[in-house]
Amino acid sequence: MAVAAVVVLSACSDSAKDDGRDRSDAPIGWSTCNTLFGADRIDKLQDEMGKGTLETLNSDYPLEELLSERVSIARAWEPGSEVHYANTAHPCDLGIDGTSARFNSFVRWSVDTPKNIDDGVASLDSWKPVGGGVYVSRKDSGLRLLALFPCKVQGTHADQEAGLPLEIETEVRNVPDFDTDLLSQMTAGLGRSLAKRLPCTNDPKIPSVL
Q1: What distance separates the 2 farthest-apart alpha carbons in the chain?
Q2: For residue 3, what are the CA distances in angstroms to 8, 9, 12, 17?
Q3: How many CA atoms lie within 13 Å of 34's alpha carbon, on the beta-carbon side?
């Protein structure tokens, strides 16, 4: 019976490798991707990116480290500070082995704010409000999606929520027919996951699809 179980497990493992869904090579990276986006969406992402083995390109970046870095930056900020300008995290970058197909994600405290967006002086001129204080910018035929939303971190300056919103970004490269609706869902899922885990004490209302 034990031998049979080993054979079954071995067959399952070989099957996962054959269909490019082996997630055992980088447990930290896959844990971060699955937590932030959901394992089911990662599987859908792979289906869209084409045949081959999907690999995580940030295999040693624990989620706890990403969150603690964002919190530290927010707590060091005060009006007029530029401490956050050059600090961007890549929580989950993926690629199909042997190809140029890529999925990239970015998390940063934004240089833009709802006020300078509304005043027309933001760094991007394509921000659009989608409700709840959330703004979205779509580029590259929808294969690059940015979202910005207020996120108050406990222990930060009183103006941090309005003056230092969180900005997230996802992009797909070299997959021209990628489902942009899926990218929208994944971006929204990333925002919701981060809002919960930082946590954002103002409970931002991020739509399920951006």
Answers
A1: 70
A2: 9, 10, 14, 21
A3: 14
At 172, list the tokens: 């797909």
Encoded tokens for 187: 């971006």
Q: Give tens-digit pLDDT for 5-38.
A: 444 333 344 544 556 666 777 789 999 999 999 9
Length of the chain equals: 210
User: CA–CA separation, 120 vs 48, rounded Å?
Assistant: 36
C-alpha of 64 from chain center: 14
H-state helical runs in the chain: 2-18, 27-37, 39-49, 63-76, 114-118, 160-163, 180-197
Q: What are phi and psi of 125, to 5 degrees?
A: -100, 10
CB-count burial class (<10 Å; 0-12, 13-18, 19+) for 125: exposed
pLDDT tens-digit profile of 64-98? 999 999 999 999 999 999 888 889 999 999 999 99
Phi and psi at residue 135, to the nearest 5°: -120, 145
What number of H helices and E strands is found in the chain?
Answer: 7, 7
**What is residue 144's DSSP assignment?**
E
Q: Quick one: tokens of 31?
A: 């844990």
Residue type, 204: P
Decide if 165 contacts 40 (C-beta within 8 A): no
Alpha-carbon gap, residue 102 to 93, rounded angstroms? 7
